[in-house]
Structure prediction request, 86 residues.
Amino acid sequence: MPIGAPAGTTPGYCSSCNAPILWARTGRNDKAKPLDRRPKGDGNMVIENERAVIFQPRIHTGMTRYMTHFATCPQGSQWSKGELRR
Prediction:
């Protein structure tokens, strides 16, 4: 794990907009999910037990939050629908 990256994540860059991202495996189906690398107070994801999970206020109080990169990338909707490929 590179310095500064949360356990279970891998730093990288978006292939569309070149923004710095973190790749994290989801807890639900073990798929790789891109997260914006910089934490965000209103983010919708947290890293829990080295997995990206959806933020739930009653469970994840005080945890660092991240935004899924699909929500911030100009081409995010195309990536999340599978219209673009790596």
